[in-house]
Each structure stands twice: as C-alpha cells, then as structure tokens.
Amino acid sequence: MTACDVPPNGMSLAGGHAILGWLLATLLAANSGNALAHKPSDAYLTLAPQGTQVAVRWDVALRDLDNELGLDVDDDGQLTWGEVRSRRRDIEAFVLPQLKVGASRSACQIVGDAQDRPLVGHQLDRHSDGTYEVLSFAFSCPGRITALDVEYHLFAATDPTHRGILRISSPAAPGTVIATAVLGPDSASRHFELFGSSLFTTLRDFVVEGAWHIWLGFDHVLFLLSLLLPAVVVRGGVQAHWLGATTMRGAAVDVLKTVTAFTVAHSITLTLAVLDVVSLPSRFVESAIAATVILASLNNLRPVLRDRRWAAAFLFGLIHGFGFAAALKDLGLSPQSLAVSLFGFNLGVELGQLAIVAVFVPLAFLARNTRFYRIGVLGAGSAAVAMVACFWFVERAFDVDLSRIGL
Amino acid sequence: MRRHFHCFPGRRGADAARVSCCAALWRTLLVWALLLPAGLAHAEPFVPDRDDAVVERLRDRPLDQTDRELRRLRAALHRAPEQMPLAIAVAQRCIVIARRDGDPRYIGYAEAALAPWWRQSEQPAAVRLLKAILLQNVHQFAPALDELGRLLQRDPGNAQAWLTSASILQVQGRYDEAGAACEQLRAIDGAGSYAQACQADLEGLRGNPDSAAATLQRLRTENPGLGSWLNLMEAELAERRGATQTARQRFTLALAEQSDAYTKGAFADFLLDEGDYARVIELLAGSERSDPLLLRLALAYRARHDARLAGAVSDLQARFDAARLRGDSVHRREEARFELKLLDRPERALPLARANWDVQKEPADMRILLESARAAGSQADVQAVRQFIVRNRISDVRLAEYLQ
C-alpha cells in the first residue's frame, strides 16, 4: 500500500477537497523541516577553450538519462554497460542539442567526422550519488576564442530542478578554472569573458599576447634586425667598405634612434587602426610589410639611407603598426577594456622587441670586426632575408602559395 | 574555548593542557584520514570491459503500484500535456514518491507536469495547492505560505491547504498561527479528526504532552485508516516525553505500514539515542543513497568502530560539497550534525546550525544548535535557544539537560 491508496476511513472525500486523502500519511509538521534525502539532479559541464576550439566534458547521471530515454530495457532496475552503450547515438541525439556554445557573438559547431556525425567519446565516472555518463567532444568556433556564450537546456522540460554545474578553464593555463556557474531554467544563458575581468589581468594577458606576437611574427623581427645589422659598423675607407664601429656608444645611439623611431611610428598607426580612425585592407598591409623587409635588407647590400635609417624605421614602422592592429583585433576587444588592452599589447610588443635588441646588439658588437659578421651576416644574411621577404611579398600580394608550386 | 594546536603550551598547568591539546591534534589527524579518500575518490573516467557489467542500480525497491501508475500517467501526459486533470494526477504521485523515497528528482518531475500553469497569475486551486506543497518540499517556506494564503482566500474550505499551512507554521516556530490554522479545519466537513490531530501535535510539543498522547490514542481507535500517520505522531511524542517503550513500539508499527525515508530517519534517531546501534545498521542497510540516512548509518558505524565509517564519511563530504556547488542550503541541519558528530568540528557546525535555526525551529533544530553551541563554547547561542524553549513551553526530555 502506498500513501495515495490509503482510503482515509471516516473521512468524506466528497466536495472540493478530494486531495486530502492522498497526502496525509506524510503531512505531519515534523516532516516539513526535513530535507529530501537524495542529491537532486546535477550534471557537470567542463569547457576548456583553446585557440579556436572548446573541449567539452559533460557528466550526466545515468539515472537521469534512463528517466528521459528508458535505457533500462529489461526493466530490472539495473543498468548494464551494454544497455547504455547500445543507446549512445540516442543519448547524443538527446543531450548534445541541449548545449549551445558561441564565441565572440558567433555560434560554434560540434566537431564531426567525415560524415558530419558528431565525434563523441563515451565513458563512465562514479560520483558521490551514482554513475554518470561522461560525454567528451569539442566545439569549433569561427575565430580565436576570447569570450564564451553558453546556453544550457538539459532536462529543462522534464525536471526544472536540474542544474548544470559549469566550470570554464583558462585558455592560457588549461586546468585552471577561471569561471564557474550554476545553469538552470532561470539562468540558462551566460556570457563569460575569458581574458580576465580585472584590469590587471587584462593588462597582463595583453602584454603576454603582444610579446608573443613580435616573437612569432617573423616579418617584424626580420625587419628590425635588418635595420640593426649595420648599427655596429660604419662605412669608411677609400672603397667605402664596412668597418667595425669604434665605440659601443656610437652603436648604441644608432640602435636607440632606430628602435625609438620604429616604436613611435607603429604605436601611432596601431592606435589609429584599433580605434577605427584609419583602416587599410589587410592584404595591402601584409604585402607592404613584406616590401619593407625587402627594402630594409637591400639597404644593407647597397646603402641608400646610411645615417638616416631611423627615418626608414619611422616610415615603415607606420605600416607595421597596421599589422599589429590586425593581430590585436583578432584577440577580441571589449569596449570597456579597450584602453588597457591597447596599452598592454603595445607594451608587450616593445618588451618583446627590447629582448631581441638586448640579445642581438652585444653579440653583433663583439663580432663587428670579423669577416664572418661583415660578409656572412651583414652581406649574405641580408641577401637571404631579402629573398625570403620577396617570397612573402609575392604570396601576399598575389594571394598564391609558393610552397605548393615547388618554391 | 578556542582550540589551539600547540602541544606544549608552556610550563604552567602543562600536563592537562597537553593531554587535551594532543587529543585535539589527534582528532585533526583523524579528520584528515577520514576526508582524504574523498579527494582521491574522484578517479578517472573508465569504460567497462564487459557489456553485462552492472553500472548503476536505479531503484532501491521493486516497482510498486504507484510507480506503475505514474509511468502510465506520464506517458499519457506526454501525449496531451495541456490536460490539467492528468497533470495533477502525475504531480500528486510524484510528490508521494518524492516523500516515500526522499528523492528530490520527483519534485522536479511534478513541477514539469504543472509547467503550463506554473507561472500563471490566476492559477486553478488544485495547481496552486500542489505548487505550495512543492515549494514547502524545497524549504521555500515563505513563498509556499504565500501561495496557500491566496488559495485560502478564495477557497476557505480547502482542508489540505489549512493542514499544509499549519505544518509549515509549526516548523517555523509560529505556534499560535499554526494553532489557528488547525482550528480552521474544525469547521470543515469531514476534517474533524485532522483538526484534533493537528492540535494534539502542537499541544504535545508545547507543555501538554500527556493530554496530547491521550487524544492521539483515542483518534487512533476511532480512525484505523489514519494508523501510520498517527503512529508516527505518537512515536515522536512518546520520544519527547521520554516514554521509550511506547516510542519504540509506535515507530515499529509506523514503519510496518509505511517504510519511507522520513520514518526510517526518525526511528534511527531514536535508536541512536538509545544506543541501539546494531539495529540502526540493520534498519538502514541499503539506504546509503539517501544523505540523511547515510549520516545516521555513519553515526552508528562510528559508535561500533565499523570499518565502513571512512567510506560513509567521505561519501557524505562529497555530497555536501556537491550541494554547495549547486547553491543548495536545505541540508544545513544534517551538515551541522555531520561536522559536530562525525568530524568533531564544533566551530564549523555552529554557523551551519545557526543558519538552519534562522529558517526552521523543530526540536531537532533546537538540539543541534544547543549541542554545537555548547561544544563551541558559545553561551549566547545556548541562551537564545533556551529562551525560545521557555517562552514557547517546548517539552522535550532530550532538551532538558540544556535548561538547567
């Protein structure tokens, strides 16, 4: 006998209170203060964004999946691995559409196989209240992920008390949780900025991004080095050969003038471009940057600018600034932290640049009087840089991939 | 008294202090030893190597008639979700099962069945009543009373609504208002016995335990159909009066008629007080999925130095952690008891017992706050509860030692 079958003898069930009978057995005052005994339905969702992808681990209770999909085919009150495994396509078809992920305002797609079926790993894990199905898959997003929009509707139609316990890990340090949230019918959609909400973390993140950009962007490094190679030597003698500069001071002043001019110039255009005051097509900018590398290295083989390399650094630096701006915009900028992001990125670029200078200049100064430096590095090195930059120029200006045609 | 872990407090009075201090250190180590497996328990995901490996047990008991009815009704409701009588029938059965098994998922299923009407401002009376009961079940006492108030304004003859109101008000310690709600039942045709039981329960709690016991006994002979309900009421009243023989007998009767999670938990508490730990372990075997019952099992394990204690403690810790992640606060009474009685951390138990006391004021709530406050040395909390007990003339032998 269960509570709802108990006929409350001596009670008239007629009239407007027919419900009275079925609940009474447990309606005592003493009952109300007692919490329901079991853990309610939770699912554990972990999102790990990295680059343009989001790796997902989603732990969903087998008990809940059974309630929804009837996994216990033989109805013996026990689930076997076979019963679960044979229904994995149904589980995917039901569960996956309940989660939508967007990055920087555009929707991400679940990564699929050749037939466009979602690629999903199925495992099990034991939680304190039972066994959970562990679904592992990934979303692919249109661009680098700097912010995530998460929309969660799992079991919303059958159990409004279900909650999704969400953890988001840091793109910079996977494994470190940077955001948590409880998702349910009243809080189904949430937005997360991944690059720190505090000004300090934003600044730090963008400084790191700026430094990485200068190190990984070979065109900027080669341009700078091409301008710096001649700083430790002077053109002298009757046949106008390169000679080692006599003092470190002279070399340092030259380096300082060049680097400062480059910095001031690219800071100006970086700012103007990020603020959308000036905008240039990226194909033009990228080709022009390659052209600046060609000109800077050719100048070492047949000097035109001589003591006014700082002027070239300034002029060409203006073009490089547009390139930095494109990289910064790809990282995604929020209007609130624009100033900090811009400042941080620029600072990172300068720090990265300084690190290169700090390593290069002393070595070059020590080697300045050797034939190896004057012929091998300054001569052959500049020629090699010019050739590489020529390839870049052709590739970028004419939108072809030279490596494909055997070059 | 604050607990410090310097084992060598200095020259003066050193020995006694050193002994209690080392006991404290030892207890801390014990807590760590108990909790360590909780951290390690979360192993890597796995794939069973055989298809016939059982990976989950879905039911603690075989399917019964209510379960089968619910299945049939839910399937029908799925085809016609706007059919209110069907939705109400589903919600009612879900509430019965939620209470029987202590499974909050069924509270969610009930809410889902009522979804088409859940947010309407003008709800049908039957839906509003169920909504109030669902809110009561998740300890949303104020919103539940609000729904009941609106319902009773339109339909003052709704006996179930008065009874539910009385129940919530009593838990909140608003005894006069609870009594008034019981009184309203008297005028309703056919609800007379409920009115008497409702009043007797309140009187038994507040200074008239003997006459209340007599009333309940009379009602039981007059209304055999109310057996399990009255048995439980009588058992708890006998427990408060210190009539342990009667209490044990009534609990046994109640359990035979209705072995739900609440009855088991109440009986287990009685047995723990009696020191009958073996019976607790026997009674609750197989109920480990229920947090409050696992807590009582762990208390019995501890008393009997049972090896299963460590596993039970780490499971409980994991479940309280999971509830915290979710933002739930309905388990504070249980968690306070866990901290105080199993982990010996009164300084952690006290804030939980206090927060629980702000929400509900049953004898069990008084007791855990008194115990935590005494162990943590907070005279102010002891005094506050003592005043409440005296002012409301609460009679319960288990609280007597705190009143001197």
Description:
The complex is a heterodimer of chains A (407) and B (404). With 407 residues, chain A is α+β, with helices and mostly antiparallel strands. Chain A has twelve helices and 14 strands. In chain A, the strands form three sheets. In chain A, strands 1, 2, 6, 7, 8, 10 and 11 form a seven-stranded mixed β-sheet that branches. A four-stranded antiparallel β-sheet of chain A has the order 5-4-9-12, with no helix packed on it. In chain A, a hairpin with a 2-residue loop joins β4 (99-103) and β5 (106-107). In chain A, α7 (218-228) runs parallel beside α9. Chain B is an all-alpha fold. Chain B contains 21 helices and one strand. The relative contact order of chain B is 0.07. The chains are: A alpha+beta (407), B mainly alpha (404). Chains A and B meet through α1, α2, α3, β3 and α4 of A and β1, α3, α4, α6 and α8 of B.
Which short descriptors sum up this protein?
heterodimer; A: 407 residues; alpha+beta; 7-stranded mixed sheet; 4-stranded antiparallel sheet; 14 strands; disordered N terminus; B: 404 residues; mainly alpha; 21 helices; 71% helix; 1% strand; globular
Quick gist of this model?
With 407 residues, chain A is an alpha+beta fold. Chain A has twelve helices and 14 strands. The longest helix of chain B has 28 residues, at 14-41.
Task: Give the SSE layout.
The complex is a heterodimer of chains A (407) and B (404).
Chain A: H1 20-23, H2 29-32, E1 42-50, E2 53-61, H3 62-69, E3 78-80, H4 81-85, H5 88-95, E4 99-103, E5 106-107, E6 109-110, E7 121-127, E8 130-140, E9 147-152, E10 163-169, E11 177-183, E12 189-193, H6 199-216, H7 218-228, E13 233-236, E14 241-244, H8 248-274, H9 282-301, H10 309-330, H11 338-367, H12 371-398
Parallel strand pairs in A: 1-10
Antiparallel strand pairs in A: 1-2, 2-8, 4-5, 4-9, 6-8, 7-8, 9-12, 10-11, 13-14
Helix pairs in contact in A: 6-11, 7-9, 7-11, 8-10, 8-11, 9-10, 9-12
Chain B: H1 14-41, E1 54-57, H2 65-79, H3 84-101, H4 105-113, H5 115-118, H6 125-137, H7 141-154, H8 159-171, H9 175-186, H10 192-205, H11 209-222, H12 227-241, H13 244-257, H14 261-274, H15 277-284, H16 291-303, H17 309-326, H18 332-342, H19 346-359, H20 363-376, H21 379-391
Helix pairs in contact in B: 1-17, 2-3, 3-4, 3-6, 6-7, 6-8, 7-8, 8-9, 8-10, 9-10, 10-11, 10-12, 11-12, 12-13, 13-14, 14-15, 14-16, 15-16, 16-17, 16-18, 18-19, 18-20, 19-20, 20-21
